[in-house]
Amino acid sequence: MKLEPGTMVHGYKIVSLLGEGGMGEVYLGEDAMLERKVAIKRLNPLLTTDAQFSARFITEARIQARLNHPNIVALHSFFQEEGVYYMVMEHAAGCTLRDMILSMGLIPEARALGLFSQIAAALAYSHDMQIIHRDIKPSNIMVSDDDRIKIMDFGIARIRGEIGNTMTGQVVGSINYMSPEQIKAAKDIDHRTDIFSAGVLLYEMLTGKLPYNVDTGSDFLVMEQIVNAPLPDPRALYAFISDGTVNALQAMTAKDRSQRPGNMQTAVEILGGKAAHLPATQATRVSANDATRVSPAVSNATVLSPQPVQVKREASGMVYVAGGSFEMGNNTGRQDERPVHTVTLSAFYMAKFPVTQEQYQAVMKLNPSQFKGNKHPVEKISWREAIRYCNMLSKIEGLKPCYLTGSSGMSPDNPECDWLANGYRLPTEAEWEYAARGGVYAQKGGPVATLDLRQEGGKTNDAMHMTQAVGLAPANELGITDMLGNVNEWCWDWYMVEYYAHSIARNPIGPMQGMYKVCRGGSWKNLSMSVTTRFSFELNQFYNNVGFRVVRSG
Predict the structure, then answer these.
(1) Which CATH architecture has domain 8-90?
(2) Which among 332, 531, 326 has a CA at the least distance from the CA of 432?
(3) Distance CA 368, CA 14 (A)
(4) Where in the chain is the domain with CATH 1.10.510.10?
(5) b (16+ CB within 10 A) / e for 109-140
(6) How far apart are alpha carbons 43 and 26 in whole angstroms?
(7) Residue 522 in this model has a pLDDT that exceeds 50
């Protein structure tokens, strides 16, 4: 019999049922004394008299009590009432990683690695405590709204070297995420089984699919593939995964555990990440004070709340930009940069570089640029052509195009934007300025950044009178580069001199109409530009100093 809302158990009020399984139920509860939400896990009363199940539940509580890490759900209390065992746990708000994958289909590499670095930090800690989880899977991982990870359910975890509560030869865990040695029911399971499962988990995050054949009713076929079949190339499912990440996936999921990384930190090092080298409290979040000490490059961003450190990678393409608030504009700048006003943005993804000629050629089958070079930004692209590229790239990658044409009496070349679509689009100018400042990682206070391209790129670009290859300039706090040099960049917004005086505070998208579109950033023609400087160009015109970069809604 389930507990009804309002029931009091040992000083805790039952609010609602969160989930249930063969072992029991998990409830959302309230701690009456401390006035906080908790998760209450109850062993099924029918199993209380079963010595094996009771022992497993008690072992789970004892293991959970040993663990104190920001990425692991904490145990608050353990008790028995009317013969039934209860665990009171930290309530981890958000959704499971399983639900996140089902909703998104796949998680872009930069964001996936940011999440994975936290999972790795938690597993490294538990392994140091000689605790093996043995059931790492998306449904056992909670993700908060600001991408903080919490690992749950140590129900089948084992303390290394101790005899567990399962019988010798018994297979435990979730088949799709099991290591070969788990499937073989090896007696000497160690921490490397978690490394294998974490590799499968990362594969699924990056592709939206499990690596082995699950379109079958036979668990034995799946197990045979895990034991014997090579890891399928994830780029067959999503082409934009970096070589380093693929190499790490192969290492973590090696059939022979002696060929896997020796620990989780080594796995993250193979990925190229930095977070695992930080103390546990820093690997998962940046405090408001920390965020003001990151870099002096840009200014005036206001940190609303701590955000997780994002793993930045050269080949990841897109960078996750956590949502937040900042002071947009510059009261000492030109008239169209005034007044400074507070803007709050939702999370989004932004390309690390402007679209290159190589990328544009691959999608549109032409290269109109004046200054040829595969790694140079594409230029001589009109706003309308940039829109077409976004829609075409979205279709190629199986995403929903953002730009709608032919509706509301609008011409095909003057589209509406579906802001909820998961495809590529141009940034709003608010998104562009926020990212240029470094988002939530930007230094608070001080002057608005003004950067000469000759300093940024290490070259006297004005003497060259042309673009240069992307990525030569130092990246900002988000890992984004070339925002104050190379080419001006198209934004979505219509241009209006006095718009800032009338801008909405949350996710502004510019005036409803106009004659010109906004461009941002300095170019080889425009040196010493501020992150607040605005330009305006006709949307059907093209220039040899104007290109664009893409974003996706978060």
Answers:
(1) 2-Layer Sandwich (3.30)
(2) 531
(3) 65
(4) 95-281
(5) bbbbbbbbbbbbbbbbbbbeeebbbbbbbbeb
(6) 9
(7) yes
Counting residues of the chain whose pLDDT is more than 70, the rounded percentage is 81
pTM to 2 decimals?
0.52
Residues 186-194: contacts with CB under 8 Å, at least 24 apart: 189/132, 189/134, 189/158, 190/132, 190/160, 190/257, 191/123, 191/127, 191/132, 191/160, 191/263, 192/257, 192/260, 192/262, 193/132, 193/134, 193/257, 194/123, 194/127, 194/132, 194/133, 194/134, 194/136, 194/264
In DSSP terms, 19 is beta-bridged to 26
* Dist CA 554 CA 549 (whole Å): 16
CATH number for the domain formed by residue range(s) 328-553? 3.90.1580.10
DSSP for 451-463?
E-HHHHSSS-HHH
Structure confidence by residue, pLDDT tens digits, 391-447: 999 999 999 999 986 544 345 556 788 888 899 999 999 999 999 988 876 644 333
CATH number of 95-281: 1.10.510.10
pLDDT at 285 over 50: no
Per-residue pLDDT at 155 = 61
Give the C-alpha separation, 141 to 116, whole Å. Answer: 11
Cite the active site residues.
135
d(CA 188, CA 198): 19
pLDDT in tens, 80-92: 998 899 999 999 8
